Amino acid sequence: MKSLILILTSILALAAPAQAAVTLAPKEGDVHFRDFGFRSGEHLEDLRMHYTTLGEPRRNGKGEITNAVMILHGTGGTGAQFFRPQFADVLFAPGGLLDPAKYYIILPDGIGHGKSSKPSDGLKAAFPKYDYDDMVAAEVRLAREHLGVKQLRLVMGTSMGCMHAFVMATKYPDLARAYMPLACLPTQLAGRNRVWRKMAMDAITADPAWQGGNYNAQPAGGLTTALDLLALVGATPIQMQKTLPTRDAADAYVEHNTRSQLASLDANDFLYQLAASRNYDPASRLESITAPVMWVNSADDFINPPELGLAETYAPRIAKGRYVLIPTSEATRGHGTHTWAALWQDLLKDLLDRSN
User: Fold this and answer.
1) Of 43, 104, 258, 281, which is most buried with the most CB atoms under 10 A?
2) What Rg, from alpha-carbon coordinates, does the chain have?
3) Mean pLDDT of 127-152
4) pLDDT, tens digit (0-9, with 9 covering 90-100), for 247-288
5) Helices first, then strands: H and E counts in the chain
6) Distance in angstroms (rounded) separating the CA atoms of residues 355 and 10
7) Is residue 210 part of a domain?
8) CATH code for the domain of 61
9) Domain limits at 162?
10) Does residue 243 belong to any structural domain of this protein?
């Protein structure tokens, strides 16, 4: 399934090519967790977790890997999204803050995403109703059980990955030496953020073609509405106005965006991805975070609007946390600012320095 993160990228009219200019040597792999149990009580006989790595592990005198960095993608994305130039050409370049010559980079595809197990593999609506805790549990097992990483040097996450980072930091206090969550809030999804998701899910399930999730043809009507909602919540006014300065340009974009994405989306996959956030709420556990945290949001993020004041309420409860709000500018990309590393790489440097 084509990444919904890449859809947001097209919304913001990012003209950059899909592949980074820096030379990388990614390695892909899969791990199979047998009889994987979900919080719903369901089980999957064979849960496949796909991942990509860059660089090589380094070990200390005890044989422990010391340079592993896990980067977690957003809703609908995959680990491969971080190869886009606005991220990779800044951080993965020689001498960059996350140069693979120095770090062992782990890029998982979360449950329900990319090449990991997902409803569209064949189970459709019979696929277990996973949530963020299930996804994080699999990501932790990937690091510890399969790759042999006892403690990660850094966990970074964007959007959904940002929320996964908060789950990891609160449920697995010794998992990482530092966390950098980008573009989220550490509390349950309510208000506008929940409303647009509920609208998108309802649009899919209300389409007669959905057939309870056991459709033979994609419910195009419901998916179209869901895509339209996604286009709005992921957009930023400044970039959209610059890219679509006329009525004709805006209309053409809507027609092209919907038509180009429908062919590559699966309704069950999308529905499950949105529904996985239903019980996310690490707010009550923020005091349990012991590692340094650099939490970054952007002022033009429609999904996590700063005027709610929630970040200012929660940030002081993170003992070694620092919260930074990037002001709106011609360079910011709304919710998608999380992937434009040039805008916040100085904050990553600060985090790495104080967690060294």
Assistant:
1) 104
2) 19
3) 98
4) 999 999 988 887 888 888 999 999 999 999 999 999 999 999
5) 11, 8
6) 35
7) no
8) 3.40.50.1820
9) 4-191+275-354
10) no
